[in-house]
Amino acid sequence: MSKDKEMPLIEHLRELKNRVKVVMISFVVALIFWMAFPADLTEILRNPEFYEPMVTLVLKRIVQDLAGARIEIIGCSMTSPFEIFFLAAAFLAIATIMPVIGYETYAYVDPALYPHERRLIYGFTLAFAALFALGGVFGYFVAAPLIMRAMVFFFELAGVIPTVCAMDFYSLVFTTVLLIGVVFTSPAVLVLLVRFGVISTDLISRNRLYVYGILYILVAIITPDGWLVGNAVLFLPLVVLIESSLFVAKRVERNRLKTTIVGHCKFCGNGLRENEVFCSKCGRAQE
């Protein structure tokens, strides 16, 4: 066990404060970059009073990819442009410093981990980051366009010109990308919980309908547009991911049980774990 485990509480709090401080400074630097750094350095030389920052390129690309000529985006309020500008920059800043957040989190808990736990965290961190990135890509290139097309379709059915407030449009895009990114990380979280024995795959399998019922209610609550298309776009990939993660988790669970068995009951032959005095099957004492 590492000596760091014996650190007094005040030392842990001081280290946590330093880790959070690094994350906050990184966020401020990234936020300034997206809000102030010019997208075109030559433009600021020609017209230093007005130039387009990096976040503007992202906002224009979102409109081009998802709205195009089908949806007319309007301001709706005097403050909405600034709110969109700041929220988009904050969202991009958080995405930019995700490696810093991951490293600082790992560096804080690393001294308290055993070697085998450290190996698990390595795999979990990589899987979590990869799944989150995959979910973000899926959200932007698949889910968000499907939602936009459905919106336009119903606008046309109602004989209404597709006109959307800017804040609603960008909130829908950013929230969809973020939520689906988080949803895609569920297999990594589930497998880790099963590996540490917090939950069992049998518990989820036996209560599958209840689990999916609760998940659908949660999806309906957090879905940006709150209607059937958005719910389906978020819920169906979640079902596929949960079923896939259950398949992987069952194999992990079997391997964990095999590795923890250190002997067999002398009465019924059931596997015994370390320091297990009574057999879990027949209940007889081994000593």
Structure report:
With 287 residues, this protein is mainly alpha-helical. Helix content is 70%, strand content 5%. The protein has helices spanning 9-36, 41-46, 54-67, 80-96, 98-109, 115-157, 166-183, 186-195, 201-206, 208-222, 228-260, and strands at 72-74, 163-165, 261-264, 271-273. It has a two-stranded parallel ribbon. Strands 3-4 form a two-stranded antiparallel ribbon. Strand 3 (261-264) and strand 4 (271-273) form a beta hairpin. Residues 1-5 have low confidence and may be disordered.
Structural class of the helix and strand makeup?
mainly alpha
Helix content range of the residues, please? over 70%
* Distance between the ends: 30 Å
Number of helices: 11
Percent strand equals: under 5%
Cα shape: flat
Tell me the quaternary state.
single chain
Largest sheet: 2 strands, parallel
**Record field, number of beta strands:** 4
Mean of residue pLDDT? 81
Which regions contain 5 or more consecutive residues with pLDDT less than 50?
1-5
- Cα radius of gyration in angstroms: 25 Å
Instruction: List the secondary-structure elements in sequence, H or E.
Output: HHHEHHHEHHHHHEE
The strand line-up of the biggest sheet is 1-2
